[in-house]
Amino acid sequence: MRSHEIDYKIIGEDIQVVEIELDPNETVIAEAGAMLFMEDGIQFETKMGDGSQPNQGFMGKLFQAGSRLLTGESLFMTHFTNRGYGKRKVAFAAPYPGTVMPIDLAKIYGNQLIVQKDAFLCAALGTQMAIHFNQRIGTGLFGGEGFILQKIQGDGMAFIHAGGVVMERQLNNEMLRVDTGCVVGFEPSISFDIQRSGGLKSMVFGGEGMFLATLRGTGKVWIQSMPISKLVDRLSAGGGQARKEGGSVLGGLGNLFED
């Protein structure tokens, strides 16, 4: 199914919103609760699945929806359709401060994008959402975000949310090491793994965490400066605001000696 062609505008600086303009009978799919506003003529319906395969049957939709539960997302998705006679707008906001990334899947390697499990915001109808398992066991044990990721596939626009500032890096048969929680997404041509951050001294006292994500190959990588896990850690009472040791061994043990 070819994705609907939608027009959009990104609004805001630090806390961004995506405003999507739909022609009559065009549809955008979104995570439950992401809608900010919708104009008269827009109708929404909660469905099981992304609607990319309308003839897949109930069991197929149930399996697809069930796989979303493994990524921590809602069982259902909301479909917003313009049932009016002219152009109508609907807007979506992310659940925490950050950046909305517009991604044209038609320009991505293999028309696929691998993203962290809570990164998807909305997309044109026809975009397929699926679960993506990382085959490397080390990634599952120490990856922070785990080995369960999301695969977004299609030929239309998809919108990804990331915390803080987003950097896009093009790797050309190169290797990049990143804080495990700061990887937003990458093209399927990139190999994703978890490795030790260094020697024992660096792992214990370095403050950068015991493990780092390793991205290797040729393709695009997107990195966020403030993942939600780091934001929550800084805002919590035991977040260690006075020292950067949240990812080290002492970050957990130090709390045992606090008043």
TrEMBL record:
InterPro entries the UniProt entry points to: AIM24, AIM24_sf, Trp_RNA-bd_attenuator-like_dom
Name of this chain's protein: Uncharacterized protein (TIGR00266 family)
SUPFAM superfamilies: TRAP-like
Signal sequence annotation: none
Superkingdom: Bacteria
NCBIfam families (alphabetical): TIGR00266 family protein
